[in-house]
């Protein structure tokens, strides 16, 4: 018996879970040994159904109900193009091994290599405001352009906007599911999941095939989101929300936590403000995050400083919208409202373009607005 078979069998036993699995591995040298020598003291604490399954396997081996399930699960994964990765395998994400009691097994569909890229988790409210969705998409687009994979939970709202932002930038994105990898939830994001796979991203779940969207699954999903990531960006979150739980899990896992502040009158800003009071880094631009974590990108080409401040080589490298923004900014500071009025660009696209110009070193933020940098002013001369 191999480690994958033993791990699948153990995790199939009702009442096992990651906590008991890792307790067993503290006493046994492998999953195979743990399955073969499951202590009677533990067995008695598990449901009667589990006791029956294990005793039948001990008597009948490969012809047992438990082994039939394992064989069928592996066969179905093969049919669906799903790769199974055990903790300890070379393909298992290194950062995830650092968290307390990580998933013993991962179901992975798509580009496994994306799991080993530096990742930023972007999380927030399902019922986010328009500004929150714009921020999620714009920040994710900029961070993906800088070289980070964007990780989120494929939920409605901020999660979906974050994945979209990464795809807009032709970047990598990781969707972590709270269901079986064959039970995409919510159904409204099935198309998005397909795009993630088609464009080189990856979907991940720790749950067996066929697992539905049960409430208890999502806190487990959240700890994987933060565990895979070097940092977590909180966009909007109520004081009682899964997104706030993810941010707190990230802090417990020694990950960097970033939060975007908002209006004191917005209930969805309160979670961000709470995390900032508890030590999260307040961010206003994607460049703030690149500055903190960009060293992780140094072995992938440009340094973080080069990524954040690299000037654009010529006017042809700017799109038409970006050129309009440079012209609208001129030589004086301008508010976001003034820029929108002068260019006619809608809010989401406007913020995304301004972030790109800021990362290119052409624009900088001021209290209440934006202005061209010295490099941007030189660019203005070329554009004119």
Descriptors for this entry?
384 residues; alpha/beta; Rossmann fold; Arc Repressor Mutant, subunit A; 3 domains; nine-stranded mixed beta sheet; two-stranded antiparallel ribbon; elongated
Walkthrough of the structure:
- The protein is α/β, with parallel strands linked by helices.
- It folds into three domains: 3-80, no CATH class; 112-300, Rossmann fold (3-Layer(aba) Sandwich); 311-383, Arc Repressor Mutant, subunit A.
- Helix content is 47%, strand content 12%.
- The protein is built from 18 helices and eleven strands.
- It has helices at residues 3-12, 17-25, 31-36, 40-43, 48-60, 65-80, 130-146, 158-168, 190-198, 217-228, 242-252, 270-277, 286-293, 304-309, 320-329, 336-343, 347-359, 374-383, and strands at 83-86, 105-110, 119-123, 149-152, 173-176, 202-205, 231-234, 256-259, 281-282, 363-366, 369-372.
- The strands form two sheets. It has a nine-stranded mixed sheet, sandwiched between helices. Strands 10-11 form a two-stranded antiparallel sheet.
- Helix 8 links the parallel strand 4 (149-152) and strand 5.
- Helix 10 crosses helix 11 (242-252).
- The longest helix is centred in the middle third of the chain and has 17 residues, at 130-146.
- The radius of gyration is 24 Å and the shape is elongated.
- Mean pLDDT is 87; it is low at 299-316.
What is the secondary structure topology, with strand pairs?
Blueprint: H1 3-12, H2 17-25, H3 31-36, H4 40-43, H5 48-60, H6 65-80, E1 83-86, E2 105-110, E3 119-123, H7 130-146, E4 149-152, H8 158-168, E5 173-176, H9 190-198, E6 202-205, H10 217-228, E7 231-234, H11 242-252, E8 256-259, H12 270-277, E9 281-282, H13 286-293, H14 304-309, H15 320-329, H16 336-343, H17 347-359, E10 363-366, E11 369-372, H18 374-383
Parallel strand pairs: 3-4, 3-7, 4-5, 5-6, 7-8, 8-9
Antiparallel strand pairs: 1-2, 2-6, 10-11
Helix pairs in contact: 1-6, 7-8, 7-13, 7-17, 10-11
């Amino acid at each position: 018996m191999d480690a994958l078979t033993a791990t699948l069998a153990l995790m199939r036993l009702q009442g096992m879970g990651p906590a008991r699995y890792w307790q067993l591995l503290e006493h046994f040298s492998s999953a195979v040994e743990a399955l073969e020598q499951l202590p009677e003291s533990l067995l008695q604490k598990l449901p009667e159904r589990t006791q029956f399954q294990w005793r039948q396997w001990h008597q009948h081996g490969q012809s047992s109900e438990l082994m039939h399930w394992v064989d069928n699960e592996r066969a179905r994964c093969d049919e669906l193009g799903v790769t199974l990765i055990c903790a300890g395998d070379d393909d298992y994400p290194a950062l995830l091994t650092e968290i307390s009691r990580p998933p013993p097994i991962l179901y992975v569909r798509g580009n496994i290599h994306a799991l080993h890229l530096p990742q930023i988790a972007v999380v927030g409210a399902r019922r986010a405001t328009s500004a929150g969705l714009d921020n999620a998409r714009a920040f994710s687009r900029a961070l993906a352009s800088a070289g980070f994979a964007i990780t989120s939970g494929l939920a409605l709202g901020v999660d979906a906007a974050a994945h979209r932002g990464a795809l807009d930038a032709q970047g990598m994105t990781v969707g972590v599911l709270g269901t079986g990898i064959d039970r995409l939830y919510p159904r409204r994001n099935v198309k998005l999941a397909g795009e993630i796979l088609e464009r080189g991203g990856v979907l991940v779940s720790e749950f067996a095939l066929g697992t539905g969207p049960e409430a208890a699954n999502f806190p487990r999903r959240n700890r994987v989101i933060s565990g895979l990531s070097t940092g977590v960006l909180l966009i909007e979150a109520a004081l009682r929300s899964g997104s706030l739980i993810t941010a707190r899990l990230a802090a417990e896992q020694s990950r960097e936590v970033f939060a975007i502040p908002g209006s004191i009158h917005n209930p969805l800003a309160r979670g961000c403000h709470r995390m900032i009071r508890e030590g999260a880094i307040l961010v206003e631009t994607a460049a703030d995050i690149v500055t903190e974590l960009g060293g992780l990108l140094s072995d992938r080409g440009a340094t973080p400083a080069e990524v954040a401040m690299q000037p654009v080589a010529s006017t042809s490298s700017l799109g038409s919208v970006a050129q309009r923004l440079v012209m609208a900014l001129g030589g004086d500071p301008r508010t976001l409202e003034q820029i929108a009025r002068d260019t006619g660009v809608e809010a989401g696209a406007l913020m995304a373009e301004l972030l790109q110009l800021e990362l290119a070193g052409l624009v900088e933020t001021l209290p209440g607005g934006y202005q061209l940098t010295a490099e941007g002013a030189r660019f203005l001369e070329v554009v004119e």
